[in-house]
Amino acid sequence: MSLSTRLAAADTLYQMVEHGRSLNDLIPANLEKLDIDQHPFYQQLVYGATRYYFALDEIASLLLEKPIKEKERLVHMLLLVGVYQLWKLEVADHAALNETVQAAVDSKKQWAKPLLNATLRRFQREKEQITADLRRRDSFPGWLNKRLRKAYPDHWQDICQQSNQLGPMTLRVNQRHHTRDAWLALADEQGLECQATEYSPVGIHLAAPAPVFALPGFEQGQISVQDEAAQMCATLLNVQDGEKVLDACAAPGGKTGHLLESANIDLIALDVDERRLTRVEENLSRIGLAATLTACDAGDLAQWWNGEAFDAVLLDAPCSGTGVIRRHPDIKLLRKSADITALAKVQKNLLEKLWSTVKPGGRLLYATCSILPDENSDQVVQFLANHADAELLALNLKTDVACEAGVQWLPRSEGHDGFYFALLHKKATEQ
Question: What pLDDT sits at residue 124?
Fold first, then answer.
């Protein structure tokens, strides 16, 4: 018998919370230890318990007479996994209880068996009352909750709610192969339920997630998985045949591929992480297109730039990822308030340096998957104030919130992720 699914989930939580490891690193390693038929349930437990970690932790403190000792934090995580099943999943209560308690035995924590049994049974009895009175029902860290309340006094609750929902699986149709309508017809023939995205002209939302290799044309590069908001980067930059283009922070390569699908361009793609560039190369190989890939810090111009200016630059800047929490719930646990200040400095430096690579008459799209003004509109407002040769171009995009500069999208349960866009034009002469 392979590792217990619930024990694997609890250990993943433990490694993430206590050692700051990301789910991107932890999940693949744990899947190797589990039987293949356990994979879906393991991932459901991990993502769900991570998504609701702060609420689950509050519930645990209400159930326990005294906190579990620090050296026994794995048992605490088992308790959270058990509570999550009883609260949020359609799992038979007896299975959730018995298997979670058994996981303690499997982990050689026999002493915890009566503790888990008693606390989980109490939650089973008092679930409605306990969950109705939760202070941290939105399950967001305090620092981020505070920032959202300040930035979006009328929307912060909806942001939290949307961020705790599963995002749709969204596809990008490779326009070198098919029109969107043509691919939708193929999907209909195969009984796939899907619909066109509202904003991206090449996007499709699937009604339910599907294995990528079951999608018509995926292996041939005719479609790619990419959220609608991310698709808008290439759409808004609007590259044209013959242009020299820079994708400054390219990995994992979705936007790189979309730029190449959009026009015949000379594209340089940079990323600071050489290992992540391998992923870019794999993605480009699947769609049958190529770019010049260079592993370097985009802000260190001496490392990579030959002085030849670009017609268009995409700066999808490193950011907090607060607009994509629904896809990466560990952001709520791994990010800290101090990170925002540090990231803002990185973003400012990249924007300053890369602006010098844009030719007069050219354009730069500044984008992030953040919803925090510090990383978005505040950056662009400050940049415009310091650069007389820069002007902000209007973007024909609807938005739910006012924004001092650019367009801020918030996550939508049936639509796009949270994202920010600002398109800057370089004037031919300084004023």
Answer: 95
SS3 (DSSP) at 163:
helix
pLDDT over threshold 60, residue 223: yes
Rounded CA separation 201/173 (Å): 9
β-partners of residue 391 are 425
Compute φ and ψ for 210, nearest 5 degrees.
-140, 150
Instruction: Look up residue 424 and give its two tokens.
Output: 């800057």
Question: Is there a binding annotation on residue 252?
Answer: yes
The pLDDT-based confidence of 385 (bands split at 50, 70, 90) is very high
What's the CA gap between 236 and 258, in Å, rounded? 12
Per-residue exposure over 62-79, b if at least 16 CB sit within 10 Å of its own CB, e if not: ebeeeebeeeebbbbbbb
The SS3 of residue 252 is coil
Model confidence over 37-51: pLDDT tens digits? Answer: 999 999 999 999 999
Task: Kindly give, in sequence order, each residue whose CB lies less than 8 Å from that of residue 95, ignoring residues fewer than 6 positions away.
Answer: none
Express as a percent the part of the chain with pLDDT over 90. Answer: 94
Contacts of 106 (CB under 8 A, 6+ apart): 4, 7
pLDDT tens digits for 261-288? 999 999 999 999 999 999 999 999 999 9
418 is in an annotated binding site: no
Q: Which of 311, 299, 301 is nearest to 266 (CA)?
A: 311
- State the average pLDDT for the chain: 95
Residue 316 labelled as part of a binding site: yes
User: Is residue 1 scored above 80 in pLDDT?
Assistant: no
Q: Is 250 labeled as ligand-binding?
A: yes
The number of residues in the chain equals 431
Residues serving a catalytic function are 369
Q: Domains of the chain, with CATH numbers?
A: 5-132 (1.10.940.10), 170-225 (3.30.70.1170), 228-426 (3.40.50.150)
Amino acid (1-letter code) at residue 56: L
Question: How far, CA to CA in Å, does 98 sit from each of 15, 101, 346, 367?
Answer: 24, 5, 49, 48
